[in-house]
Amino acid sequence: MRGIEPNRTQAGRPGGLSPGGRGLGVAAVDPIPIFCEGLSSLVHRTPGLQWLGHATSHHAALQLCEQLKPDVIVLDSALDPNCHLSRLLSAGDPALVIITMIRDTNRTQQYLAAAIAAGVHAIVPRATDGRHLTEAIRRAHSDRRYIDPTLAALTARPKRQPVLPKPGDAPKPATARGLMPLSRREYQVLQLVAEGLENSGIAKILFLSVETVRTHVKSILRKLSARDRTHAVTIAFRSGILVTSPDDAHSPAETPSASSIAPSPR
């Protein structure tokens, strides 16, 4: 499964019984393998939680949620700077609890407000420890809302500051940042187009017919006012519909954060 790493040792359906009773199925969307390994270890050692797997990209995250049906998804804010993925995940499964682990670059009033509006239920610092993260998972699942106390000051209503256009600026297109003109499936198709896949390859990954993929591509070009596939990808990146992987996606610099959520030896 492209971009998805499921828990291949689990038995039964997602969210099934765990040693401590019925466990909450937990999955992650994060580009850092060692971070996901730390989270997996934490979940495995926490009674009442069950690890389902992780995804490293947007389209893989949507597939994971469709196929494994987690109760809780833990999402790296760097992969969702405009909250498009959160909105699509929430719309696809209203019962899904979305927990965003926020990086310092996204630690603003505007981002928290956008995340909550997109359907995120809990927001915690990415550098949080294991005890606080498991508390956030349980609180978010039971109360449908949890904001880490260290972020409370950012939940105040941000002041609106009108942005005046500069002389000579072109009018903003319909795909300005903050808007998502594409459907859930179109978004997945565009992600794979950006990875360089042809229609046949996209159809195989998404379990669709080639004709259905072709229809989605035509719709994407129309909605983005794009001349061709390359132009559509360019527009999507410029407008924030698509995002590049975090700079540290293949860097060991994230290791301390991963270890900070790993359980302590008993």
UniProtKB/TrEMBL annotation:
Chain ranges of the HTH luxR-type domain: 175-240
- One of its Pfam families is GerE
A single GO molecular-function term is: DNA binding
Q: Which InterPro entries match?
A: CheY-like_superfamily, Sig_transdc_resp-reg_C-effctor, Sig_transdc_resp-reg_receiver, Tscrpt_reg_LuxR_C, WalR-like, WH-like_DNA-bd_sf
Q: List the biased-composition ranges (Polar residues).
A: 254-266
Where the record annotates domain Response regulatory, the positions are 25-141
Which residues get modified to 4-aspartylphosphate? 76
Q: Where is this region: Disordered?
A: 1-20, 245-266
**UniProt keyword Transcription regulation present:** no
According to its UniProt entry, one GO biological process term is: regulation of DNA-templated transcription
SMART domains under this entry?
HTH_LUXR
SUPFAM superfamilies attached to this UniProt entry: C-terminal effector domain of the bipartite response regulators, CheY-like
Its signal peptide is none
Per UniProt, which keywords does this protein have?
A: DNA-binding, Phosphoprotein
This one is known as Helix-turn-helix transcriptional regulator
